[in-house]
C-alpha cells in the first residue's frame, strides 16, 4: 500500500524523563526525512509522549525537544542523589506529590509560548483523565465539524494535564464547559495511545477520507520491572512504592501492542512498533521515570540513537516518509 492511501498516525508512549529516548529516535528520523509534522496526519501522545506530540504537531523540531529534556530534565526532576530520591519517595507516599510542577510549567511555556491547539500543523490526540468526572478525557484537534471543544485550549494546559502523574506531580485545574474540573496523567488508561489513534480513524473514516491507516508507534524505555517471588503476598501500597507505577505503565503499553496486532487481523492497517531498547542490569539501574542524572541522560540518548540506526533504513519505516509522488523524502 502506498502512503498516499494511508491516514498516517504517529503515537508516542508516556514515561517521564524516559521520553528523551523517544525524542532522540524522532530526531534521527527528522535529520533524514525532514520535519515530522509534514509526514503525519495525526500525532498522538500520552504524558511525556503528549509533550513530544504537541511539540511536533506545532512544528517544533525534534532536536529542540531533545534539548528540552537534556537542559530542563534536572530542573523538572531535581532529585538525582539516592538519599534525596528516597526522602521524596517517602514524602510522595504519605504527604505531598514528589515534585511541584513549577519548573515543568515554566519549561513548557518557553517551548509553546501562547500556542493553542488550533495553531498545530498536524492534528493531535492527547489522553488525560478528568478525575472530577472519573472518566478518560482526550484532547483533540477540531479537525471535523463535530469536534468543537479544544481548539482554543493552550498547549501548555494540555501538556500539564496529560503529564500530571499521580504522586509525582500536582493535580491540574482546568476550566471546562461544565466549570472547573481537575485532571491527571493519561497514562492511567492509555500510556500507549496507539489504539486511540486507530479508533479515531475508524470512527471518522468517511470524514477523514483515507482508505486505511498506517500507524508508527514509538515506545519509551521500559524499566523491566520484575518482582521476585515473595512470601509477602499482602503487600500494602507502601510496599510497592514506585514499582507499582512502572509496572502499570510498561505492562499497559505492551498489552496495547498485542491488542493492535490482534485488531489488524480484522481491521487491516499498517503498523510498526519501535520497541524499548534492551538493557543490561547495570543500565536498567540508571533508568526511571524521574531519574534525570547525567549518566541516565547519556544512556537514554545512546539507546535512542542505536534504535534509530536499527530502523531508519527499514523499508517499512520509509512508508511513513514518502511524499505524494511515492518518493522517500530526503
UniProtKB/TrEMBL annotation:
GO terms for molecular function: hydrolase activity. A motif (DGA/G) lies at residues 185-187. The keyword Lipid metabolism applies. This is PNPLA domain-containing protein. Residues 10-198 form the PNPLA domain. The active site is at 47 (nucleophile), 185 (proton acceptor). GO terms for biological process: lipid catabolic process. It comes from Paenibacillus odorifer. CDD domains: Pat17_PNPLA8_PNPLA9_like. A motif (GXSXG) lies at residues 45-49. Keywords: Hydrolase, Lipid degradation, Lipid metabolism. A motif (GXGXXG) lies at residues 14-19. Gene3D superfamilies: Cytosolic phospholipase A2 catalytic domain (3.40.1090.10). InterPro entries: Acyl_Trfase/lysoPLipase (IPR016035), PNPLA_dom (IPR002641), Teg/CotR/CapV-like (IPR047156).
Amino acid at each position: 500500500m502506498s502512503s498516499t492511501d494511508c491516514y498516517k498516525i504517529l503515537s508516542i508512549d508516556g514515561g517521564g524523563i524516559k521520553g528523551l529516548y523517544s525524542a532522540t529516535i524522532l530526531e534521527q528520523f527528522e535529520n533524514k526525512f525532514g520535519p515530522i509534522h509534514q509526514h503525519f496526519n495525526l500525532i498522538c501522545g500520552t504524558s511525556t509522549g503528549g509533550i513530544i506530540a504537541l511539540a511536533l504537531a506545532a512544528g517544533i523540531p525534534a532536536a529542540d525537544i531533545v534539548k528540552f529534556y537534556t537542559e530542563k530534565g534536572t530542573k523538572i526532576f531535581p532529585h538525582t542523589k539516592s538519599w534525596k530520591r528516597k526522602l521524596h519517595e517517602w514524602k510522595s507516599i504519605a504527604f505531598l506529590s514528589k515534585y511541584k510542577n513549577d519548573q515543568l510549567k515554566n519549561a513548557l511555556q518557553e517551548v509553546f509560548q501562547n500556542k493553542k491547539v488550533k495553531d498545530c500543523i498536524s492534528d493531535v490526540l492527547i489522553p488525560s483523565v478528568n478525575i472530577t468526572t472519573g472518566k478518560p478525557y482526550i484532547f483533540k484537534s477540531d479537525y471535523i465539524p463535530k469536534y468543537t471543544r479544544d481548539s482554543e485550549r493552550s498547549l501548555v494546559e494540555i501538556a500539564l494535564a496529560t503529564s500530571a502523574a499521580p504522586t509525582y506531580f500536582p493535580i491540574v485545574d482546568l476550566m471546562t464547559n461544565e466549570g472547573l474540573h481537575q485532571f491527571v496523567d493519561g497514562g492511567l488508561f492509555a500510556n500507549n495511545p496507539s489504539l486511540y489513534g486507530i479508533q479515531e480513524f475508524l470512527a471518522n473514516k468517511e470524514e477523514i477520507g483515507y482508505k486505511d491507516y498506517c500507524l508508527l508507534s514509538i515506545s519509551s524505555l521500559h524499566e523491566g520491572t520484575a518482582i521476585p517471588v515473595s512470601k509477602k503476598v499482602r503487600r500494602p501500597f507502601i510496599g510497592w512504592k514506585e514499582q507499582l507505577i512502572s509496572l502499570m505503565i510498561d505492562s499497559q503499553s505492551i498489552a496495547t501492542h498485542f491488542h493492535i496486532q490482534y485488531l489488524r487481523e480484522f481491521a487491516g492497517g499498517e503498523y510498526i512498533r519501535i520497541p524499548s531498547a534492551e538493557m543490561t542490569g547495570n543500565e536498567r539501574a540508571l533508568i526511571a521515570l524521574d531519574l534525570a542524572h547525567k549518566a541516565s541522560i547519556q544512556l537514554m540518548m545512546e539507546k535512542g540513537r542505536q534504535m534509530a540506526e536499527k530502523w531508519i533504513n527499514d523499508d517499512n519505516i520509509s512508508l511513513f516518509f514518502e511524499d505524494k509522488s511515492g518518493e522517500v523524502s530526503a
